[in-house]
C-alpha cells in the first residue's frame, strides 16, 4: 500500500508536522521575547535590613550586572556579584513581571575582630570589610570561629549581672578558654564546664570581688570547688607587695 493511500499514517504525519511547527513557533516567540527591546528592566528593587551597605553601592552593582531584557538578564550572575560584596551574607534575585528585578539582601552581622585580620560574623564566618567599629577580639584556630561566636553570646548573657563585657576571647588549640573583660581582668575558664565556672565568678563578683576589681589581674576558675585570684603588682594583699595568689578555697590542683 502506498503511503498516500494510508489515511492513518498521513494523519499521524500531519499531526507531527503541526507539533513541530508549534514548537518552532514557541521557540521563535521565546527568542523574540528574550531579544526584544520591548521588555526592558525598568526597576531594580532592593530589600533588606541594611545598616552598613549603602544604597548607592548596591545600585551600582545592580546596574553592572542587570541589564537589557527582563527575560535575558542573568540573575545568577547578579546574585554572585552581590554575594561577593564584603557585607553581604546572602542575596536572592528574582524577576517580577513585567519589568522589575527584586533583590533580597541579607547583611552580615559582625560579632568580633579576628586576631591577625578580618571580622567574624554571627554565623562564625570570617570576612574582610572596612570598619572602624569597636568589636571584641577573637584569637584561636579558624575552625573554632562558630563555637566562639556561640559561646561569646552565652558568656555575655552570664556576665550581664556584673555589668562587665568581654573585650577578648582566646581559645588554645586544645580549646582552653581565657576571657578578658572590659576592665582588664582575665578569666581562665579552661576546657570543661566553662559556663558553670563563669557563673561561679558572677556569684563571687557580687560577694567579694567587685570592691577589689581595680587590683585584680586574673581569676583562675579551673579549680574544682573554688578559684584563685592574682592581684596586680603593688596591690595591698594581706601585707604582700608583689603579685600574689589569694585563693578563696584551699589550694588544690586545677581541674584542667
Automatic annotation (TrEMBL):
Region (Disordered) location: 234-256
GO cellular component assignments: cell division site; plasma membrane
Protein purpose: Essential cell division protein. May link together the upstream cell division proteins, which are predominantly cytoplasmic, with the downstream cell division proteins, which are predominantly periplasmic. May control correct divisome assembly.
GO biological process: cell septum assembly; FtsZ-dependent cytokinesis
Keyword field contains Thylakoid: no
Subcellular location: Cell inner membrane; Membrane
Quaternary structure, from the entry: Part of a complex composed of FtsB, FtsL and FtsQ.
Stretches that traverse the bilayer: 16-34
Protein name as catalogued: Cell division protein FtsQ
Its membrane topology: Single-pass type II membrane protein
Main subcellular location: membrane
UniProt keyword annotation of Cell membrane present: yes
InterPro entries according to UniProt: Cell_div_FtsQ/DivIB_C, FtsQ, FtsQ_C_sf, POTRA, POTRA_FtsQ_type
Family label: Belongs to the FtsQ/DivIB family. FtsQ subfamily.
Domain POTRA, residue spans: 39-108
Record key words, sorted: Cell cycle, Cell division, Cell inner membrane, Cell membrane, Membrane, Transmembrane, Transmembrane helix
